[in-house]
Specification:
Purple Acid Phosphatase, chain A, domain 2, about 25% helix, six-stranded mixed β-sheet, 16 strands, five-stranded mixed β-sheet, alpha/beta, globular
Length: about 350
């Protein structure tokens, strides 16, 4: 049988109204499948294969709950951002820095990993990166460590069926099944429910993690972090217009407009870096210091805005960790940071630090 697709995708797990469970995806030969179980077999694992068949692992679905929003700092905390469906670069930095082994298992013990948003879009292996993050998050907790993944603007976009930055394969799969792609991450799906349990802002030790940044409008709103996390998660399954009307604060919290006076919401804002030629309202030193004091942290670590290297701003009070994963992996340049015993190191794919 001639393949319909040029690589693997999925699996997507959907819970039907009658209690049945559907497993949807594309196998390694490019053939779509939709397998329905009245009841999932005991100890059922989803079988995950990368687009080109190079990587494969199984994931047991387990109960999950929202992370707490504030944690003590572990001995080691590795921080990366914006994987964007690039499974090769994702594996490289995690294996090279001792977070996981080549069997896709957490080996970082009681230490921590932070992913500062944007697993979705651009690459062809969004599902393997999502499932691996899901898997490692469970394993980290069982080992006494923690995996912290905060939502980015591309999680928000895809769950709203905005596929402008998604690889063509995802819209093609949805078209084949005659559905909207976002429905594969709906409130009746395993990964949709899991993504909706993810926080937008977390604090670990002296470090606040948020994908875009915190604007002057955010400061003036005097927002409580658990409230922000709940508001964004609760509205994820709504379309753009519905999100704007969801609550008094939801329009701002999801706002992406660069003309939004005082800066946009936390998953989109780009103005934390302290210079005036950015495409968003830049944050003054006074407001930045006010944010650090309010949330009792020394620094804010962001993804979203891409730099050629991991970059430190404003005497280290703002750190931008989003780099081009593939380019920096290939040239052995910076990929993230390691916070160890209060010291901050820039790291590469081989475990090098400087």
């Amino acid at each position: 049988m001639k393949p319909i697709f040029d690589g693997a995708d999925g699996p997507y797990v959907l819970y039907e109204e009658n209690g049945a469970v559907s497993i949807v995806g594309v196998d390694e030969q490019g053939h779509p499948y939709n397998t329905t179980y009245d009841v999932l077999p005991k100890d059922y694992s989803v079988k995950v294969v990368s687009h080109d068949g190079t990587h494969r692992f199984n994931v047991k679905m387990k109960p999950f709950e929202r992370n707490y929003w504030k944690y003590e700092s572990p001995e080691k905390l590795l921080v990366i951002s914006d994987p964007h469906g690039d499974i090769g670069s994702f594996l490289s930095v995690l294996i090279g820095n001792g977070v996981m082994n080549e069997n896709y298992e957490w080996i970082y013990g009681k230490n921590g990993l932070v992913i500062v948003g944007d697993i979705f879009d651009r690459g062809v292996d969004v599902l393997p990166v999502l499932w691996l993050t899901y898997k490692l998050k469970h394993e980290a907790r069982e080992a006494g460590g923690a995996l912290h993944f905060v939502l980015g603007n591309h999680e928000s976009r895809v769950l709203c069926n905005d596929l402008d930055f998604a690889a063509a394969k995802y819209e093609e799969l949805a078209s084949y099944f005659g559905i909207e792609y976002a429905s594969l991450f709906g409130s009746n799906t395993e990964l949709g429910q899991w993504v909706a349990s993810i926080n937008t802002i977390e604090i670990v030790g002296d470090n606040l993690f948020v994908h875009g940044g915190l604007s002057e409008n955010f400061y003036n709103g005097n927002y409580d972090i658990p409230y922000v996390n709940e508001q964004i998660s609760s509205a994820l399954f709504l379309n753009y217009a519905e999100r704007d009307k969801y609550s008094d604060d939801s329009e701002f919290l999801f706002s992406s407009s660069r003309s939004y006076k005082g800066g946009s919401g936390p998953i989109w804002y780009r103005g934390m870096f302290g210079y005036t030629d950015v495409v968003d309202h830049y944050l003054t030193e006074e407001v930045l210091d006010g944010l650090l004091k309010r949330y009792d942290v020394k620094r804010i670590v962001v993804g979203h805005t891409e730099f050629s290297e991991v970059s430190f701003f404003r005497n280290g009070k703002v750190i931008g960790v989003n780099v081009h994963s593939q380019k920096n992996r290939e040239r052995q340049a910076s990929r993230g940071i390691l916070i160890e015993d209060g010291d901050i190191f820039v790291i590469d794919d081989k475990g090098g630090r400087y």
